[in-house]
Model the fold of this input.
Amino acid sequence: GLSRWLNIYDEGLMVYGAVRVMDGHIPYRDFWAMYSPGQFYALAGLFRLFGPSIMVERWWDVVVRAALACVVFFLTRRLSSWPAALSVWLLTLAWLEFFGFFGYPIFTGLLFIFLSCLALTEGVRALAEGRSDRRALALAGGLAGVAAWFRHDLAVYAIAAVALVLFAHGLTQPASSATPGVRAADRIRAGLVRAARRLAPYAVGLAVAAGPVAVALSLSVPVNELLHQLLIFPLTVFPRMRQLPYPPLEAENLPYYFPFVAYAAVALAIALAARRLRRAGPDEARALRDVRWRVWAVAAVMLFGMFGFNQANIRSDLIHIPQFFLPAVALLAPLMRGFKPVLREYNYAFTAPAVTVMLLLAFPAVSNYLSVSQQPPPPHDVARAQGAPVDPNQLRAIQFIRQATAPTETIYSGVGRHDRIFVNDVMFYFLVERHSVTRYHELHPGQATTLPAQEEIVAVLERNQTRYIVLSDMFNEVCEPNASCESAGVTLLDDYIRYHYSTVAQYGPYRVLSRWR
Done:
């Protein structure tokens, strides 16, 4: 799928943000962004090595997704059998291709989250065997901290899941060390101490990995900007402007509803396994030690996936469910084989539905993969997009701007109307190799539609006497069932453009405007 059409918004945000970083711009201070900085800097480093191009970004994405599938395999192999892990690996690969959206940082974040879960399995295994593997727990925390570089929201979900599991693990009195006559208060106090000892190395690893990045950003960017762009706006404005209703319960929407069933089945399996483990005698408990640590590791993955429903419920489309969907896919493996020693009488009841669901999920992903065209894209002269097709109208607008402006000249890529915005063509900046005149290269509803943002854009257009702007009308009629479809009533930027610029060329939905007064 490397030769798929360019995604002018989501993919454009990543590649152009990386170019800005490569040229010395700092996210949140020099350009507005809601994403964590990791993907911008990772791509900027790759662009430094290999040159800025779509293929560099897409090969990075392919490597990340392949690595993610491999980590899911190793994790599920620890929690289950080879056949089950291999099946999950193949299904994960198929769906990672099916999701599309090259450059989307959720997959890089998930890679480190699953690596963190893999390290956690070693930590809880050591605890089950009476050892204290602080290094594994610290590594799990460190990998969660690295995940925060790419998606801080996913890191929060993972930290909450692991904290709950380690806290519960510490509070749970092992049957082998229970002492009759000890007061309940003393047992609780001892459990809290154990929980703190388990959480401490995880917290240290997290602080070591995420702390320096947080400090560097706070020293480079005003704190109010960091809080607004990374926390306040995503938690308050984004849900209102981008909310999509959850898809109805229909056959084609299986990916949206399968995780609910998977997590419920896993919770039931955990409850049944825990009941059996509590009733096991000392000799049997030692024999079932592997099941005991698997229960805790499975619980951590399950909680992370359940917390991931938060985003899936806000923006309910396919690309916003991987953090909810992929952990459920991974947990199909332990459902099939992971609890077999303690759930022999229930094994078929869990295995048969899990295999059936895997086959149902495989069909749309594999069918899509087989239908992907691998034909070479039409030839064009956009160096940064070689290997991928470019829209003919966008290409002609790019050629016009290149001929009319110097490489160091800034431009503005906007939309047909700025009082109501769906998305803008951010990819245009990357392909034309001209920087945005404003820090708002991403025009997000609820931000670029506000009066302060438009006043800032107008001020910078006026101060720089920007000669050319490009407006795209292709999304003028897009109206989602959320507040982005409503006019903000702010027409300052549109009025300024109408008064100061006139159309000098039009290519389909792309209008090139030149300043005339």
About this structure: The two ends are 46 Å apart (CA to CA). The chain has a mean pLDDT of 92. Residues 277 and 359 are 32 Å apart (CA to CA). The beta strands are 412-415, 468-472, 501-507, 510-515.
